[in-house]
Amino acid sequence: MSLLKEEELIDILPKDGPTAREVKKYLKKYNDEFIVIKCGGSVLIEPNLYEIFIQDVAILKKLGFRPIVVHGGGKRINKKLNELNTKSNFINGLRVTDKNIISIVENVLIDFNKEIVESLKDKNCKAQRITSKEKNIIKVEPESYELGFVGTPTKINSSIVKEITEHDEVAVIAPLGLDDKNQTYNINADTAAGSIAKELKARRLLIISDVEGVLDKNNELITEINSIKAKEMIDKKIISGGMIPKINNCLDVAGNGVKGVVIIDGRKNHSILFELFSDKGSGTLIRE
Known about the structure:
The protein is 40% helix and 22% strand. It is an alpha/beta fold. An eight-stranded mixed beta sheet has the order 5-8-2-1-11-15-16-14, with helices on both faces. Strands 3-4 form a two-stranded antiparallel ribbon. The protein has a two-stranded antiparallel sheet with strand order 6-7. Strand 9 and strand 10 form a beta hairpin. Helix 1 (6-12) packs across helix 2 (20-27), helix 4 packs across helix 5 (99-122) and helix 7 (189-200) runs parallel beside helix 9 (243-254). The longest helix has 24 residues, at 99-122. It starts with 5 loop residues before the first helix and ends with a strand.
């Protein structure tokens, strides 16, 4: 990839994002490497945040990167289940998924996947769908009997993802997988993104959510953390609740070939660009 000149960068970058000078400094660092972006939370339901997210992914592509999007859809699934008067329970943050619910979850995620692909195409950014019905790349086994059709990834077919990126397209992946009998399973989107990032030996896994990042005991953002510090914070209950599995997943990914995992706040303008292209970053970088 030939690196872009400053004036070319000015044409590509948003005016309220990092400057062309800052971006130029970091372009070489991520040159031609996989950046896996897991997106969830408000970004996927608030139109303005969603628009900025799509814009940022399209910009990464124009800069010559290889972004891969793994999307959640919990809030949309909740909405659909409410409309259908279908109650669902959770065990340790994972949705108990019976035969009826997995069919609803699959339909919601596939529809949403199409929407993201179309949104990227509207920004002149070619993209391809990966779902349980099209080009499935995730083999799963059941997480547990109690959870029903919730799966743990056992194998990722990375060649499909690589082929899509070689055709200069963004792979947009739904957190769904198939077992040996071709039964569809719902997968926690963080887990799916982590498995894909590990298989691709991605340069970065960016986890976009509705939290600033990891906070210390005074509720101040910690910009970087390693496994020793994280375990200490879990022991002291500074990291607690739903953040524990999130951090453990990040540490597993960072310990298995991914150079860094970052939890970033999708509610902030252009948080993806500021994370990758500014000294300050925009969340918590987690290393082994």
